[in-house]
Design a protein that fits this description.
Blueprint lengths: L2 H29 L4 H20 L1 H11 L4 H25 L2 H28 L10 H4 L4 H31 L3 H32 L6 H55 L20 H19 L5 H13 L7 H17 L2 E2 L16 H16 L16 E2 L5
Antiparallel strand pairs: 1-2
Helix pairs in contact: 1-2, 1-9, 2-4, 4-5, 4-7, 5-7, 7-8, 8-9, 9-10, 9-13, 12-13
Length: 411
């Protein structure tokens, strides 16, 4: 593949990712339209996405053919990058300055970028730029006064913005104790450094041409765009991480809880048919459940239902004998999760053996104190973990008790 084809693909993908990030944050902006930082963030992603699409060689050439200005794609793309830089600077200003200070600085920041953009437009149209050069524009038109000035204005303006972003976000990421926000700021700084590699590559190629050599052109035509695409991916990830990162972490926690509870829940469903609203399925298939919160909630309820049905098979006397024997075997004083798991296992065995339950119905059989769902879930996870690892054949076998008896034979 030629560089023209490669960068037509990579630039289009980078643009699409930026626009996806814009659409993702747009939902937040609709809920909080007065948030200046959020408006600036959305604008930056939108302008960056459009810039990549303009600079994709396939689009670049068509813009030139349509307008009659072969390299207009450069001005459009890099002009949009300057607008994205302005938006990014406003975003950083809103993040790290008080509202009053941000309002005071905002006009000067906007003036700086708009003056730079105006200068770029004037210099671009005063330069002689024949032929379409979507890949090597910077090095091809070096040593022409107006185009050199244009490139210097663009690269310096964009480079200062990237440095400003990195210098603000990295130190702050180390001082914040909110993990997802800290990671977001760190990635924003890292992405800015990557894109600074784009600036550096362009400057290396330009300085090489100023020195009379083309040996450094690849820094500007190959490595520079690759650094820009890599940096853009990191920035998109960083700016959207607090939302989808927290959601992904929550989903992972729910799935882990589901996998932990599954062996105990499945055993109870087999021992007490009818307690499950949904038929037991592979825990891996549960990965694709449409409402994982509801499914996990149902699982907890169904485990509790199973406990209540099985409770009459093990009375307090059986439990107390089991507790003493477990403590005598060195399991320690706090055997509650083990007791809960073993009592359930014993009750299921007695039911399976055909023993008849007693009239003992003192509660649900749980030793967990707390009524919040999160507390109950955490407790049942501990019980389920112990249940899945019960050392078969090593736990005590309680003596016969009057709480259960064989099912009487007919007649």
């Amino acid at each position: 593949m030629t560089l023209h084809q490669v960068f037509s693909v990579t630039h289009t993908l980078s643009g699409a990712l930026c626009l996806i990030a814009f659409a993702y944050k747009w939902g937040d902006l609709k809920r909080d339209p007065g948030n200046l930082a959020l408006r600036a963030l959305c604008s930056a992603r939108l302008f960056n996405g459009l810039a990549y699409l303009m600079l994709a060689p396939a689009t670049y050439v068509r813009i030139g053919e349509f307008t009659g200005s072969a390299n207009l794609g450069t001005l459009l793309g890099q002009g949009l990058i300057v607008l994205a830089a302005l938006s990014s600077h406003i975003m950083v200003l809103s993040w790290f300055c008080s509202p009053e200070k941000a309002r005071q600085r905002l006009p000067y920041v906007a003036l700086f970028y708009l003056v730079a953009l105006t200068a770029m437009v004037a210099l671009f149209f005063s330069a002689s730029l024949p032929g379409s050069h979507p890949i090597d524009f910077e090095v091809h038109f070096t040593n022409q006064g107006a185009s050199d000035a244009y490139l210097v204005v663009f690269l310096v303006t964009y480079g200062l913005n990237l440095a400003n972003t990195a210098l603000h976000t990295w130190p702050s990421s180390l001082a914040i104790d909110r993990p997802w926000l800290s990671q977001s700021l760190r990635l924003s700084a890292l992405g800015s450094v990557f894109v600074l590699g784009f600036i550096l590559g362009k400057l290396v190629g330009i300085v090489g041409r100023w020195s009379g050599t083309t040996a450094l052109d690849s820094a500007a035509t190959l490595w520079s765009p690759l650094m820009a695409s890599a940096g853009s991916l990191v920035l998109v990830t960083g700016y959207t991480l607090p939302e989808w990162g927290a959601a992904a972490s929550s989903w992972r926690g729910r799935y882990r809880s589901y996998r932990t509870l599954y062996p105990l829940w499945f055993a109870l469903c087999r021992a007490v048919p009818g307690i499950a609203l949904f038929e037991p399925r592979s825990p891996r298939r549960s990965l694709w459940l449409r409402e994982p919160e509801t499914r996990l909630y149902r699982m907890v309820i169904e485990i509790r239902d199973g406990q209540r049905v099985l409770r009459p098979y093990v009375c307090d006397r059986c439990e107390e004998r089991l507790r003493r024997e477990l403590q005598g075997r060195g399991y320690g004083a706090n055997t509650d999760p083990l007791m809960e798991a073993y009592v359930l296992s014993l009750a299921m065995e007695r039911k399976k053996a055909g023993l008849e339950p007693s009239d003992y119905t003192a509660g649900s059989g749980s030793r967990q104190s707390g009524t919040e769902f999160t507390d109950e879930l955490a407790w049942l996870e501990r019980v389920a973990e112990v249940y899945a690892c019960l050392p078969s054949g090593r736990l005590p076998s309680p003596a016969p008790c009057s709480c259960t008896a064989p099912v009487p034979s007919p007649g």
